[in-house]
Amino acid sequence: MDFLLITPQARPGVALIQLNRPKELNALNGQLIREIRDALQILDADDAVRVVIITGSERAFAAGADIKEMAGRTAVDMFLDDRFATLEQIRRFRKPLIGAVSGFALGGGCELAMTCDMLVASETAQFGQPEIRLGTMPGAGGTQRLARAVGKAKAMEMVLTGEFISAQEAHRVGLVNRVVPVGQYLEEAFRLAASIAAKSPVAARLAKESINRVFETHLDEGLHFERKNFYLTFASEDQKEGMAAFVEKRQPEFKGR
Fold it and tell me: Which residue stretches of 92-151 are H helix?
């Protein structure tokens, strides 16, 4: 991995992926996107990892796509390269994925952040889809996920003006979970991850899958999908342990089985 720093056990059950193209403010070129996908696939197969945090630097989570790499390309070049398909593979990561965002999360960086299940932001974080300033538009989910996160009117304003929003406004409109001082954002992400890692990983995966289904189905189908996954948890050892521990008034010891 040339552009990533990976710590599989940064904390018990929690892996950390750090984007590492500092001179380019972690701009997302094709190689970096593929490295993120490959890292997540490896961590998805690691039973010791229950939650993953992805972060950048204090200055930039990811300042956008690598425009220098894209500027001279044709529509056919972009179609054949299809790096957006790689981003879709990132979206299919099965374990809980937390984004720890400081500084710029713009364009492709904002789209990458929105593929995370939860976002912890520093007070300096800025989110935006400024592609229209370059004569183009978001192409990796920026219109679709942003509208689902913040609503039609706010998404229209952000996409059509290219203006950024602060971490505080991102929290107010529902794009991020919490905002903390810049020196604490990564530690806050670890605290959130630790809380999730202490729960049943089987139930966490099924719950994540069910919540994501909200955006892909009608209510009746979503309820059916949720119910099926709920029943499926009763085939796990974790469910037996969790309920036994409750009855016996002790802390559960989840094994991920």
Answer: 108-114, 144-150
Residues 205/254, Cβ–Cβ less than 8 Å: no
Q: What tens digit of pLDDT does each residue of 79-132 get?
A: 777 667 777 788 889 999 999 999 999 999 999 999 999 999 999 999 999 999
Tokens of 103: 């500084």
Residue 58 catalytic? Answer: no
- Please give the DSSP secondary-structure letter assigned to residue 217: S
Q: Listing from the earlier edge strand, what are the strands of the sheet with 118-122?
A: 4-11, 14-19, 51-55, 97-101, 118-122, 178-180
Candidate list 24, 35, 131, 188, residue with the active-site label: 131
pLDDT digit string, tens, across residues 8-19:
999 999 999 999
Residue 50: closest CA among 199, 191, 164: 199
Which are the contacts of 14, defined by CB distance < 8 A and separation ≥ 6? 49, 50, 51, 52, 53, 190, 193, 194, 197
**64, 99, 108, 128: the active-site residue:** 108
Confirm whether 10 is a catalytic residue: no
85 is catalytic: no
What's the rounded Cα separation, in Å, for the pair 32 and 64? Answer: 12
Active site includes 169? no
Q: What is the pTM of this model?
A: 0.88
